[in-house]
UniProtKB/TrEMBL annotation:
Pfam families in alphabetical order: BPD_transp_1
Listed GO CC annotations: plasma membrane
Top-level lineage group: Bacteria
Protein's recorded name: Phosphate transport system permease protein
Protein family (similarity comment): Belongs to the binding-protein-dependent transport system permease family. CysTW subfamily.
Organism this protein belongs to: Microlunatus phosphovorus (strain ATCC 700054 / DSM 10555 / JCM 9379 / NBRC 101784 / NCIMB 13414 / VKM Ac-1990 / NM-1)
Keyword Transmembrane helix: yes
């Protein structure tokens, strides 16, 4: 028997002890990795369930107690303005931040030279490492004073539009300023995810569009965007989740009131759930603590609903994205 045939026989019959040992180690590693992955996924669900149970347990007294016993008044009247402010500020941040983030991601992935793209990507990613307190200080000390004259100009000329109704805030600390700060905070999340999705577009699709005579923008519109649409939606929803739950930056920038108002430039602005908890919790006691935790439960439900809606949109669009 030739040496080559002998090696093949040993491999087929398990005659090589080293091969068996390597296979056993590999199978053991696979089992360990599978177990760690399974338990990690289960741990996320367990932690989520524990958080929900804690919020429900601590918030239930505020939901079941008479309105007269609640220090912040009837719970629906207390939480509805906060829900409005939370959703309103987050949606404004999303409207301003997502187009800019997608444009930056598109520039990095398809327009910028390689060296510039790498450096710009690092700079954008570093924005995620900046603490929210620093964003809040920047909003108070830099953004609000710079925007205040613009707010006055808008109220003088566009006051007939309810969004720009006056009088303008004298400090610039408005819900629009807070939304701009939130837009900057969600920028690195949406940009990073959109950039990775754009880079995963099949090159054959792009080359085929260019070969048919499409310009670069037409190629992006026909090949890149359809493929990346589910990823862009997912990135936007993650950014929305960050904006909904942001606390310190909003608490520092806003001049909050318990109102429902679409006006963007006035000194009276709707508050958010997270910022109200941060500002009110140190002085809360008794049922007041339970009432604040109950608002946290409402924020938890809103965030969960947003993520479920985003997942449904992504799953529905995936079959038409060209990814399959």
């Amino acid at each position: 028997m030739e040496p080559h045939d002998l090696r093949e026989t040993q491999r087929d019959t398990g005659g090589g002890g080293g091969t068996i040992a390597k296979g056993a180690v590999r199978r053991l590693g696979d089992r360990v990795f599978q177990g760690l992955s399974t338990w990690s996924g289960a741990a996320i669900l367990i932690i989520l369930a524990l958080v929900a149970a804690f919020l429900l347990w601590q918030g239930l007294p505020a939901l079941t107690s008479p309105a007269a016993d609640l220090p912040y008044g009837p719970f629906p009247q207390f939480v509805i303005p906060l829900v409005f402010g939370t959703v309103w500020a987050a949606l404004l941040a999303l409207l301003m931040g997502v187009p800019v983030a997608v444009a930056i991601a598109l520039f990095i992935s398809h327009y910028a030279p390689r060296r510039l793209a790498a450096g710009l990507g690092y700079v954008v990613d570093l924005l995620a490492a900046v603490p929210s307190v620093v964003y809040g200080l920047w909003g108070i000390g830099v953004l609000a004073p710079v925007l205040q004259p613009t707010f006055v100009w808008l109220t003088e000329r566009l006051a007939f539009i309810p969004l720009f109704a006056g009088p303008a805030s004298g400090t610039g600390r408005t819900v629009l300023t807070a939304a701009m700060v939130l837009a900057v905070m969600i920028l690195p999340i949406v940009t990073a995810l959109s950039r990775e999705v754009f880079l995963q577009t099949p090159k054959l699709h792009e080359e085929a569009a260019l070969a048919l005579g499409a310009t670069r923008w037409e190629m992006i519109r026909m090949a890149v965007f359809p493929f990346a649409r589910p990823g862009i939606v997912s990135a936007a929803m993650l950014g929305l989740g960050r904006a909904l739950g942001e606390t310190m930056a909003v608490a520092m920038v806003l001049s909050p009131s318990m109102i429902i108002s679409f006006a963007l430039l006035t000194s009276q602005n709707p508050n958010t759930i997270a910022a109200n908890i941060a500002l009110s919790f140190p002085e809360a006691y008794g049922l007041g603590i339970n009432q604040l935790i109950a608002t946290g439960l409402v924020l938890f439900v809103i965030t969960l609903a947003v993520n479920m809606i985003a997942r449904g949109i992504v799953n529905r669009r995936r079959d038409f994205s060209g990814a399959n």
